[in-house]
Design brief:
It is a single chain. This protein has 448 residues and is mainly beta. The chain is built from two helices and 34 strands. Strands 3-5-27-26-25-24 form a six-stranded mixed β-sheet, with no helix packed on it. It has a five-stranded antiparallel β-sheet with strand order 4-23-22-21-20, with no helix packed on it. The protein starts with 22 loop residues before the first helix and ends with a strand.
Length: 448
């Protein structure tokens, strides 16, 4: 179970959002990080729609500066990322991204949250977001999955609790036809390091909610499943949902594994491979694996692909380190032929490099470098949006346009930098941090 703390303020929020039970720990970590971490300052520029350099970052543009790489907005320099990739042409512009002065305005915007009654996770369309809701904002043990709109909420399933704890809906993603999310069983007594989880799906046609997989069944009744590290949310295509969680192998040892969960109801969940950060694509799933052994085995260093109808896992590309530099994969996201991978160093002060590909990993279109050592992203066919997750500093949120290469600034959210965009429209959800003594609120609107 996770640490139970029903009176804590909502502070962390995943690609949907994280458990309220982690709030106090995250607040402590954020304060320590803010006091102890010093990042270098980069003289900023931005690229506007006509691809000209400008030192002004007004009107919702992020500040960007080309570090090096192939021609980007008329500039040219040798590629310079601190690692090599084997299996993909990594030569592309490298651009520093940092906060702009004013957040880009969103069209037809509305707000939710700001109290503890509803917590938004992911936008579905311009009028609805998926999240959790409780009928009484002072009741934090009866949250249920819901569609939230400016006119109220629609309950997708009843709240569930018993003598051992309650189920809390957390990270989710979806369309207007199907929503998939993860819930955790939150105990009434303090516990740490473990997570009893389940993955559920709501189907619009039937109106039913179905459990696709759960940690207790996968681990033969055990309730001590370790917490999945990093930022991992359920993801799905037309046939299957995917998640990464710890599953016991034949020897009884827990291994972090990618789990496939068919929607057809006739197949059981299946272990695809050891790895993490799954991202569904039309014909299967891509995810991070380790190409090392021994002490380096815990550092994800390759991107793998498993086709829905294939029995084999194939590595797509892998990291080749330069000397003592150590970078690993810290996130993967996909939509159509667009692919995004974040790479993070063991040295947090180096920030993160974000690989952006528009052709299913045949090449890299651009490298986005940010100061944050973590990346939480979401994308559709028009925009990539991302933030830094639970970081106290360098907590800007951004949007990269696939066609124009514009980088927009969405604002800051200390400890809650987790924007999300709908799959079928450019509706974006942007968290607003209101202080440590208030609930986070959410702005929903159209990104242009």
């Amino acid at each position: 179970m996770q640490l139970a703390n029903h009176s804590a303020k909502h502070f962390d929020h995943g690609n949907g959002w994280k458990s309220r039970s982690r709030v106090i720990l995250l607040a402590i970590f954020a304060i320590i990080a803010l006091a102890a971490t010093v990042f270098g300052f980069v003289l900023p520029y931005y690229l506007n729609a006509s691809s000209s350099l400008n030192s002004d970052a007004s009107d919702g543009n992020a500040k960007v500066q080309q570090k090096s790489g192939k021609s980007f907005a008329g500039l040219s320099a040798p590629s310079s990322i601190p690692f090599d990739l084997d299996g993909i042409d990594a030569n592309a512009p490298v651009v520093d991204v940092s906060e702009g002065g004013t957040a880009v305005p969103l069209d037809h915007s509305w707000k939710c949250g700001g109290n503890y009654q509803n917590i938004a996770a992911a936008p579905i369309d311009s009028s609805h977001v998926f999240g959790s809701n409780t009928d009484d904002p002072n009741d934090e043990i009866h949250y249920y999955p819901a569609l939230i709109s400016s006119n109220g909420t629609t309950k997708l399933a009843d709240p569930e609790n018993d003598e051992t704890g309650f189920w809390e809906p957390q990270d989710g993603t979806g369309t207007d036809e199907r929503i998939v999310w993860k819930s955790s069983k939150i105990g009434y007594e303090a516990s740490s390091g473990t997570d009893t989880w389940r993955i559920q799906a709501w189907d619009k046609t039937t109106g039913n909610v179905k459990t696709l997989a759960d940690s207790i069944s996968l681990n033969n009744g055990s309730s001590d499943t370790p917490i999945t590290p990093g930022e991992v949310s359920p993801t799905f295509n037309d046939r299957e949902a995917y998640y990464a969680g710890f599953v016991r192998n034949g020897a009884g040892a827990y291994k972090l594994s990618v789990i496939g969960m068919p929607f057809n109801g006739s197949e059981n969940p299946k272990i695809i491979a050891e790895g993490s950060y799954p991202a569904a694509v039309d014909d299967g799933v891509i995810f991070a694996v380790s190409s090392h052994h021994g002490k380096e085995a815990s550092r994800y260093s390759a991107v793998a692909f498993k086709g829905t109808d294939s029995k084999n896992v194939k590595n797509t590309f892998s990291i080749v380190d330069r000397g003592s530099k150590r970078y690993g994969i810290s996130g993967i996201w996909a939509c159509g032929s667009n692919r995004v991978v974040s790479f993070t160093s063991k040295n947090a002060s180096k920030g993160s490099y974000i690989l952006v590909s528009t052709d299913s990993f045949k090449s890299v279109a651009v490298w986005l470098h940010v100061k944050s050592p973590s990346v939480v992203a979401s994308l559709n066919n028009d925009w990539l949006v991302w933030g830094s997750g639970s970081q106290a500093s360098n907590n800007g949120m951004y949007a990269y346009n696939w066609k124009t290469s514009q980088v927009k600034f969405l604002g800051n959210a200390e400890g809650y930098s987790r924007p999300s965009i709908a799959r079928s429209s450019n509706t974006v959800l942007v968290p607003q941090f209101n202080g440590y003594d208030q609930a986070v609120s959410f702005v929903i609107g159209i990104l242009k």
